[in-house]
Amino acid sequence: MRRGAVLIAVVIMFVASSAAASAAPKMTAADVAASNARTIAALLAPTPAASAAAPGWDTIVFHHSATAGGSKARFDQGHRRKFGDPDGMEYHFLIGNGVGSPDGLIEVGEHWRKQIMAYHLFTQARDARSVAICLVGNFELPDHAPTKAQMAAATALARALVARFHMGKGAVTMHRGIDGRLTQCPGKHFPLAALTAAIEVR
Question: Which residue range forms the structural domain that includes residue 184?
């Protein structure tokens, strides 16, 4: 009986720890909005690093994580292990969906902080000038699409990037728009047309 009780306790602890790991940090919608506003304000503010890199950024590429949840910390760890990149997550920005990170929260990757390219495309020649934005979720699955909060954050972030780096018309695309024969990312339910239209509305 004792052995069985111990086994049950271990199982309960494992389930609890797994649930805790997948739970998003506690932030209200107002907290997320305030954090995103600070992120975008910093993006729009001219800095020596951003000014030096400005001529290079000419494209925004949207991805999905193809996972149920995730966070910058999780993808930093996974991408360091998978790709051997000490800078971690191979996206410049990550937008959470409420599982692992707050819904709509913009997290800034180390590649953006250092103003260096992220290896997020199969066509590596396009990596150097493209800003990678990943929305957490798998939008290839039936009835799976970005949340309203993710769409609002993606629109605001992309709009700021287009303005900051004077990107031309057609600068916003998605992974399969570049590597279409090799990937379906960011999934059939990613609303690029709606997102592009929202970005262009001032």
Answer: 24-200
Q: What is the domain-level CATH number for residue 192? A: 3.40.80.10
> Does residue 97 sit within a domain?
yes
pTM for the predicted model, two decimal places: 0.84
Decide if 49 is inside a domain.
yes
Q: Is residue 175 classed as helix, strand or coil in its secondary structure?
A: helix
> What tokens were used for 135?
């929305």
Number of structural domains in the chain? 1
Residue 44, CA atoms < 13 Å, CB-side half-sphere: 13
3-state secondary structure of 106: strand
Q: Is 49 exposed, middle or buried (0-12, 13-18, 19+ CB in 10 A)?
A: exposed
* Residue 49 main-chain phi, psi, to 5 deg: -65, -45
Task: Answer whether residue 14 is part of any domain.
Answer: no
pLDDT tens, position by position, for the chain (202 residues)?
444 443 333 333 333 334 444 556 789 999 999 999 999 999 888 665 554 544 489 999 999 999 999 999 999 999 999 888 999 999 999 999 999 999 999 999 999 999 988 988 877 767 888 999 999 999 999 999 999 999 999 999 999 999 999 998 889 999 998 888 899 999 999 999 999 999 886 5
- The answer to whether position 18 is within a domain reads no
Contact 121, 177 (CB under 8 A): no
